[in-house]
Amino acid sequence: MPANDPLQRYVLTLLAVVLTVLVLAYGRDLFLLLFVSALFTFLLLPLSRRIEKAGRPRWVGALVATLALVAVVMGAFFFLGWQFTRFGGELPALQQTLHVKVQALMRWVEGAVHIDRRDQIQWFNAQLAGLADTGGQLVMEVFSGAGAALGVIVPIPFFVFLLLMMKDKFREFLAHWSEGRETDAVAIVRRISALSRSYLRGVLLVMLILGTLNSIGFLALGLPNAVVMGFLLALLNLIPYIGVLLGSLLPILVALLTKDSMGYAIGALAVCLITQFLDNNFITPKVVGGSVSLNPLASMLALIAAGMLWGVVGMVVAIPLAGMIKLVCDSVPGLRPYGYLLGEETAYDQDEPGPR
């Protein structure tokens, strides 16, 4: 069979795609660890270099940058944990309120559709028993997933430190690899680094803005723990589609339990809808901007594919990963048409190596 036979090229391409998907699926934890570590490394590179330019050894710059990352993450977790502890202290009162409202609901059902409260309780107990049958397995899956996520998160600072220490070695490797080739790998990595910093800074700023807006709205409604609910909703906003839905349930439920009027629950829903509208149409496009320059179809396919391969965490990292792939395609002459297909450009110029 000739080497340039179309059927042979198709089979080889299909085989490469299948093997790539299998490797990405089975090596999920390793690839996520490396990718997330690389993202934080790109973000911390300027700080590390600034310390080195001040005359400090390389390991000092890498260590200070890594400790800064750990301090910020631990501070965020400490703040959320402190808020959740306060929220947990109010659970007994909320449980009592929930009991009163459930009794009122059962009386309304009994009067409206003439279903005896005893029958309602029997139906509820049957549903609860059904949930209990699968609850053990669900709890085990949740703890297993949490353990796997913890196993990926804990080594990240060590990988970030090592990557910062070896940045010059990687640069030399890429420079030697690019010799005699059309592609300048060092320039591509520099552009990826700039893209990563722009994207992460934008995402963090969007979270801060959304958390502040949500908190102001919930405080205006007089909801307890407004700040923790506001920033929790902003954090869940990182999970496309389902994150906002899950995050919106908490303030609505709190409004139902702590307020006498349904208007507060409607107001909490309105706050979530308004902030999401502002985020989708003004905040994210303005702050994050076109750092990844993906068209909507490419973004949707990236989210679905990453979600199928790596679950919820895959959906979180899908957009920056797809943006990096597009950047590589824009920089490699043979792959430039694919970069054009993934991007938002309205015209294709094969002499231009990157997005305009």
Write the layout of secondary structure elements.
Blueprint: H1 6-26, H2 28-53, H3 58-89, H4 91-113, H5 117-153, H6 156-165, H7 167-178, H8 185-220, H9 226-236, H10 242-258, H11 262-287, H12 296-331, H13 336-342
Helix pairs in contact: 2-3, 2-5, 2-6, 2-8, 2-12, 3-6, 8-9, 8-11, 8-12, 9-10, 10-11, 12-13
Specify Rg, calculated over alpha carbons: 25 Å
Number of strands: 0
Question: Helical segment tally?
Answer: 13
Stretches where pLDDT is under 50 for at least 5 consecutive residues are: none
Shape: globular
Percent helix among the residues?
over 70%
Q: What separation lies between the terminal Cα atoms?
A: 42 Å
Q: Report the major sheet.
A: none
Q: What is the mean pLDDT?
A: 79
Please report which band the strand proportion falls in: under 5%, 5-15%, 15-25%, 25-35%, 35-45% or over 45%: under 5%
Oligomer: single chain
The succession of helices and strands, N to C, reads: HHHHHHHHHHHHH
- The helix-and-strand class reads mainly alpha
